[in-house]
Structure formats: C-alpha cells, structure tokens
Amino acid sequence: MAITSIDLNSKIPNNVGLSDDPKLRRALEKWLPNYLEWWNDMGPTDFADKPIYLRTAISVDTGGWAHYDYVKMPDYRWGIFLNPNKGEPIIPCGDDAGKPAWTEVPGEHRNALRRIIVTQADTEPASVEQQRLLGHTAPSLYDMRNLFQVNVEEGRHLWAMVYLLHKYFGRDGRDEADALLERRSGDEDRPRILGAFNQPCDHWLSFFAFTMFTDRDGKYQLAALSQSGFDPLRRTTEFMLTEEAHHLFVGETGMDRIIKRSAQLQKIDPNGDIRNQGGIDFDLIQRTINYWFSYSLDLFGGEISNNAADFFGAGLKGRYRENKFEDHRAMSGTYQMKVVDNGKLIERDVPLRNAMNEVLRDNYVADCERALRKWNRTLEKEDSKVRLTLPSRRFHRHQGIYVGHHFDTQGNLITEDQFAASRDKWLLRPEDNEYLKSIMQPVYEPGKFANWIAPPSRGVDGREQDFEYVKLR
Ligand SMILES: [Fe+2]
Ligand SMILES: [Fe+2]
Fold it and tell me: Most CB within 10 Å of its CB: which of 57, 77, 365, 380?
C-alpha cells in the first residue's frame, strides 16, 4: 500500500491526501478560522507574538519526524498526520478479531465510534484552556517553551480528531467538530465532557501533576484506540502517541525537579522548613499527587462496564498492547475486583470484558507507580527520609463503583465524617493554591530557574541550559 507523502505546503499540512478530496478540504478550511479564533480567545494568553523554539511534525517516519525552530504560536503548522500502514491491517480484538480492519465506519458502530472520538477530542482543547495563564508564572524559559509545546500539540490532537469527524461522520461529525470549539473548561453551562478537564490548573505544580497523571491517562486511552478495528482511528492515535510522550516527560521530570529541589531546600534550612526557603513542602506535593491521580483515575470509566465490554467485543477499542495477549476475544476469564457490599469491601469476579476499563487502569497505575519509585530514588540520592506514595485507587473517586462511599488514602472504607475531617490533610486546599501562586513569580532570564525547582538534566533538542527558548524581547 502506498504511503501518502506529507504535503507541508498546503493550508493544512497533511499526509491524508487532502488535495485529492476538495469537499473535505473545503470543510476543514472552513473550520480553520474558527479554530484560530478559539486559539486566540482560549489558548495561551499574551505570548502570541513571541518566537518560541518549538518542534513541528513534518513527517511520520519514526526517525526525524519533528523539526525544531522558532515559531510564533499562531503560525504553528497544525496538521493531519496518520501513521502509514504496515501490511494489511486487521481488527485486533473482539468478536471479529483477525478479520480485515474497517476503512469506513460500520453502520452499527457509528454512534459508539463517534462518541469515543468526541470524548477523546474534547480533552485536547480543554487542557489548553486549563493551562492558558501559566506562561505568566513560568519558572524558566525552558519550562515556558515546554508548556507551549504541549499546548500547540494538544491543538494538533484536536485537528487529528476533527479530521476523523469531518471525513467519516458527515453532518453529525461537522456539528460535533463545531461543538468542540464551543464547550469551555470549567464553564457551568457548557463544560468540557470529563471531570478532570474542568478542574482549575492555575499554577505549575498542578501543571506538572496534570501532565504527569492526566496526560498519562491520555496515553493509555490513545493506546487502547490504537488497537481499534477502525483503521483511520488506529493510525491517527498511533501518531498522537509519538507526540504525547513529550507531555508525559514534561510532567514526570517537572515533578522530579520540584521534589529534588524541595529536598535540597530542606537540607539548607536550619529547621528543615522548606516553605521558609520559598520551596514546596512535601505534604503539599503529596496532596497534589492525591488530587490529580484520583481525578485521572476517573477518566478510565466505570470498573464494571457494559460499554467497555461492548467496545471491546465490537473491536472498537483494545487493551494496552493487545498484540501481547494470546486470546483477543476475552470471552472467558474473569477479573477479581474489590467492591463495596453491605458496608464492607469484598472480592467479586467480574467477566473479563466488563472489566476492560479496570484492566487498562491497571496498566496506568503500574506506570504511575514506576514514576513514584523514580521520584523516591531522587529523594534517596538527596539524603531525604521522605517518601511519596500513590493513594489507593478507591480514594476520592467521582466515577465508577466507589462513588458514594468514602475511603482513606490506603483504600479502607471510612465514614463521610471521617473523610471530611481528613480532607485537608489529603487533598489540595484553597490556601495551598494561594501559597503556590505567591511563590510562582516568572523567571524569564535564559538559563535561570525559579528557586522552587531544580534545573533539568539536559536541554531541549540538545540545546545548552542558557539557550533562549522563548524570545521575549
Ligand atoms: Fe493530546
Ligand atoms: Fe498530551
């Protein structure tokens, strides 16, 4: 099968042959100014005229797919890129596993697929909205550049999903594409679809926790969609995953640098008081982890889910690395899960297909645990006795079977009153945000970093520490 080459010169860079499909091209070119208007209104504030050292996707080759140069954000080349097909694609999972993949949307799966795509799409502009003010408090030009890189790529991910809606879902798809520019993160009347994407992200500790935990949910959702029988969705999400890796890097290393710096400040202070040194204390870091981890767990959906079973059975959405499994139908088999029954936690066997959300959540939790081990190694290296932990997956949930019950961070059932009494110990509180905002003064001098965060171990694209990642003058 021929690989369509990248057309970088067209109004919308793409490798999907837009120039051969005038109707689709016109529709997307009509959507483009609305997108730019949304970007100008709801994207990063104030830095539109500054050249930023950004990477732009120029190819889908694994080696050398990105090009780095100074770009002003509104001039970023948002494009539509699908990974090339290797061989004849098949449906990776479900009842029809092994049959040829669909190149068009099967009628019986139309609504489900549209819903899956819209839900994924909605998260992309939502996170840009959540992060729009952060440039004003960036701890360095390096971090500011990373923030804007994440933002423009979330914008591109929106393009990736809108392409699918326009190309494969007709009138409904176009309406959905318009609605994606109309909802607003945190808006009471027209909020974004998922809870975590309506939470405020108004300082950099939350930004790093968000890119660590919430973007990581995105990675696992995209990984599941990259095991879809709908071939264009599979190829689109595969390429999105390439970009997503950087967002996770920003979050994981950002948290690590804060943790490292906090340990250093604790050593410096005669009383070990990190706040006295203008840093971020470990209790506050732990509360931030608890907050964003629990909201991100919700994004995987219900633990016991008919939708999950239907999506898997229909071949719309597979498991993480479905090809590593031997049985792609998962008709038999059960998953043991803790459920609340008569005020007690008991084990229950759930049919495997109904537990697919939880199976994916397991992969996610294991990945987060790996990052926590890394952060704790950083603490060890700094001679700190502190250790950070992930709360139980039952703690502070707003979706799924644990809603309506209360758990401590270890996952033990407690009463509502007990939860309320400890809430401030476990979760971000308003005065935390006040403190964080008070120490987050911007640092715009090349090579300099705010006092509350350690410098990164290396620069972007092999650049020096004092490289001018954003030209502010
Ligand atoms: Fe994204
Ligand atoms: Fe992302």
Answer: 57
